[in-house]
Amino acid sequence: MIVRNLREIRMEYIDESKSGLDLVKLLLKKAQMLEMMTIVPSMDGLEQAKFRRRVLKFRKASRNVNIQFCATA
Question: Residue 66: which residues within 8 A CB-CB, separation 6 or more?
Fold first, then answer.
């Protein structure tokens, strides 16, 4: 699976829908070489904080991954 070798991922306009969270979860779980994941959520304020907390709890295949959340694309 190619996902294992990804080193950097940028995801824009990801939301808290099941498909959005499932995609983030899958990539974190499978990308063993991942160094950086940048997420530009499609929501603001409290929803974004809740989304961030959920994402940071996901299991990560890479111990060195840095997850950043950006307000704008």
Answer: 35, 36, 37
Q: Domain limits at 39? A: 8-69
Give the global pTM: 0.87
Which residues, other chains included, contact 3 with Cβ-Cβ below 8 Å and sequence gap of 6+? 26, 27, 30, 31
Q: Is residue 1 part of a domain?
A: no
Residue 73: the pLDDT is 63
Number of domains in the chain: 1
Domain-located, residue 2: no
